[in-house]
Amino acid sequence: MPDLSNNIKCGNSLIGPDFYDQTQLLFVDDEERIRINVFDWDKEFFEIMENGGFNVVIGNPPYIDSEEMVKSSPELREYCAKRYKTAKGNWDMYCVMSERGISLLNNNGIFGFIIPNKFLSAPYGLYLKRFFSKYSINNVLDYSSIPVFVSNVKKINVYPIIIIVSKNNKNRSGIYMKMLEQNSKDFAYQKEFSINTGETDWTLKFDLLEVLLQKIENISVPLSNYFNIESAATVSEAYEIKKILQESKKDDKGNFIFVNTGTIDRYSILWGFSKTTYIKNSYSNPVINKEKFLKLFPNRYKQAISEKLVLAGMVKRLEAIYDFGNIVAGKSTTLILKKENEYSLKYLLGLINSKLYTIIFTSKNKHVAMSGGYINVNQNQLYDFPFKEINFTNPSDKSHYDRMIELVDNILELHRKIVSVKTPDEKTIIQRQIDAIDNQIDKLIYELYGLTEEEIKIVEESVK
After folding, report:
1. Which listed residue, 138, 172, 192, 354, has the most CB atoms within 10 A of its CB?
2. Strands 320-323 and 334-338, bridge-based pairing
3. Can you list the domains of the chain with their CATH numbers?
4. Which has more confidence, 188 or 175?
5. Pure H helices in 23-168
């Protein structure tokens, strides 16, 4: 057996000796130096690095988000932000670990990491995708639908993939993504899909839906052409919002209603009916004082008083509500606001809450699915989302548009009524009306997009 004792090293693989070039760090004490534990790869593995680098780098890097890093390792975050291309936005530790791993390879080396699938959809993941796309992505194994990491102590919300990359830059335009799904406690099976990789968007193609999705793309334009798509809050803002969040009292004229993903349904908010959980606190009727909010967040205040749609952030089916200017939303949500054009947000609300838009969204974002069939929704995924334009000079188009707004107005009014009815029979009657209008909206959208009977069947069977 070869002697491996000199091959096992201990240190912070992200931090090199240049960490001490910062003058304020010349005076750190011994305890701090031990905690930081800089690592010089060129010195510790001299022969390997002198010959170009490692043949293989594999690992399961730490998953530490920006919020936790700011608290526990601010000096590490500051150091990495200056030296790693993937350290942009609310980046996670695994981003810079991946960049470091590939940088240690020789020109023909192979990299393999198990990392969360979140980078495929999170805005900060753009920079990691851009970095990976410089090289040859050999394979992506998706384990997000099965419980890879299990703990008896706490729930582990990690949805992992394994990515295999060759350092040579003979990149392919399309690769295969293998998705493992579980249909019983002990058995997992594999499905294989083609995936197109680019610097910004990695999109799966499903044979059954490919023709339909391509048809929709061909007659649509990016949603951001006509609407502003914005985040509701940053991580740092979220903690500031928590400080001014309070329970509602009788007189709420000076307050905004506060909602988050858990209190957003299709067309209706569950505020006052379901508990609102926000950064480990629970509220029955959360509100925010308008004057305090304006003082802390003047730009967010403009969002709050604007007409807008609020989209839930983790869903099985797209969920959006309409707000005329009285809601502050949590950081997990996405906001859509009007631009200067003819389009009503209510027209878009009908589209987003439809079956067709859910199947488009889930098909385009299957690679970031979480256990239980949930999909993460954020502004990054919505910029280029296919939007059906209306030719307002065309009588048929204008008629469909007007009918959509009429139906959406009706369903919004019914949702307002159903919360105040007193008997189960009354509730059943109104719910039947809601369901009927919901179906009318779906049929109207099928007509707008010119779907065939076969294509409608695909959508109806896919969204139950």
Report:
1. 354
2. unpaired
3. 52-205 (3.40.50.150), 221-462 (3.90.220.10)
4. 175
5. 30-36, 41-44, 46-50, 66-72, 74-83, 93-103, 125-132
